[in-house]
Amino acid sequence: MSLMATLAGGITATIAATGYAGIAGLMAIESACIPLPSEIIMPFAGFLAATGRMDLLAAATAGAIGCNLGSTLAYAVGFWGGRPAVLRWGRYVMMGSRELAWAERFFAHGGGLTVLIGRLLPVIRTFIALPAGVARMPMTRFQIYTFVGSWPWCYGLAWAGYRLGRAWETSPGLRAAMGRLDALAVALILAGAGWWVWRWRRG
Questions:
Q1: Distances in Å between the alpha carbon of 47 and those of 15, 40, 54, 65?
Q2: Which of 116, 154, 155, 202 lies 20 to 30 A from 49 at CA?
Q3: How many domains is the chain built from?
Q4: Domain enclosing residue 132, as ranges
Q5: CA nearest neighbour of 47 among 178, 173, 176
């Protein structure tokens, strides 16, 4: 079995076994600053929606709810532990002092609205809850902005997976093209793992 097929099978099986709760749980992990990319989770949710096993809008909503759950945990770390906690533990999730300083500047530039905007941006969306907690942003506003910013992101990725699922059976060349991406996927995974280890050791 190819790498892409194995990865797809594992995430799809998790979502298929637990349904919308599984989507919410996986997205909560991603939003709690643990590197589990939503760019993998939500497209497979959309892929399952293409098969009729779940609803596309409900899948996106479940993903956004998961973002709120995970972001609340990250917010709490910043709120209760402040910068010292983030600096102490952030390196384990690839967030060092430079990343925290950058996120704080980003947050300070636009205030609470950066939570909404940041949820629409790759990488930034994963860590924006930490400076929001450090700045003690009001919880109600934080939850609203997080959900409003997360839902379009989740829907867009799920829609892409939905379109892929609809084309999967009708495009014979699509599977062959995905198979040729295996070597690239392996290289990216190894590079990402190496970078994470390097940052951890350096920290």
A1: 11, 11, 9, 19
A2: 116
A3: 1
A4: 3-202
A5: 178
State mean pLDDT over 157-178.
69
Which letter, b or e, does each residue of 146-160 get, where b requires 16 or more Cβ atoms within 10 Å of its Cβ?
A: bbebbbebbbebbbe
pLDDT, tens digit (0-9, with 9 covering 90-100), for 50-99: 888 889 999 999 999 999 999 999 888 888 877 777 667 666 555 666 66
Locus of tokens 């942003």: 137
Please tell me the distance from the alpha carbon of residue 137 to that of residue 112, in angstroms, as a whole number: 7
Task: List the end-to-end C-alpha distance of the chain, in Å, as a whole number.
Answer: 37
Structure tokens at 69: 């759950």
Contact call for residues 46 and 158 (beta carbons, < 8 A): yes
Q: Tokens representing 175?
A: 């599977």
